[in-house]
Amino acid sequence: MIRYARRLALGAACLLLVGCSSTTNGETVPGGTRAADPRASGSSEEPTTSGGKADPTARIKGVLSLKYKAGQHVKSPQRVAYDHTPPLGGPHDQLWAPCNGVVYKKAVRTENVVHSLEHGAVWLTYDPKKVKDADLATLVKKVDGQPYSVLSPYPGQPTAVSVQAWGRQVQVDGVDDPRIDQFITATRGNPDLAPEAGARCDEADPEAFSQDNPPPFDPTPPGPDAVPVGGGS
């Protein structure tokens, strides 16, 4: 009885002061309240970029965020074994694809466009079997004539529309998804995301990559000689 009374007294004292610790899912939380997740709705905190600034894509639902080493170049026709479809970073061709509001009607060589991402471009891709006519026109309006923007079909991608910037990607099922515009605004030319933001995005070598007749997309899986995402020179 005396021990029981002592436990009651200690419990009351604990409540009168700052609250006792409790355990939730194996974690001890002061006062019995779990700390709020900074990614939860309504929080003012966001993940930060390498420059210490808030990541503007953190509040866009479904954004994939990865880190890639910059400046890793390959030379055509060398392939890269990218880790995502479409890719959002990694080794790339030494020559970028023109990306100042360019709309490619046919799928183009992936390795060149990834270099454009390094320069700060946003790459909109679509599955040509799912996006046609009026839907395609909606995407064209988002890119045509806009700096650091490029649009091309990407056969076999997992969703109707995918949007890539260096180290960031969001994939959606329709052209009217508001996340497309949100993502473009957050990433296009952003120096906190793209390693070489502001670098050239015009046509540099028409003989190697002509905007009007670009090297074609290769739909076959990369062979054993493909450069891994962690490779390049």
Automatic annotation (TrEMBL):
Range of residues in the leader sequence: 1-26
UniProt feature, compositional bias: Low complexity: 41-52
Listed transmembrane segments: none
Keywords linked to the UniProt accession: Signal
Compositional bias of kind Pro residues: 213-225
The keyword Transmembrane appears for this protein: no
The organism's place on the tree of life at top rank: Bacteria
Disordered: annotated span: 26-56, 187-233
Protein name: Uncharacterized protein DUF3105
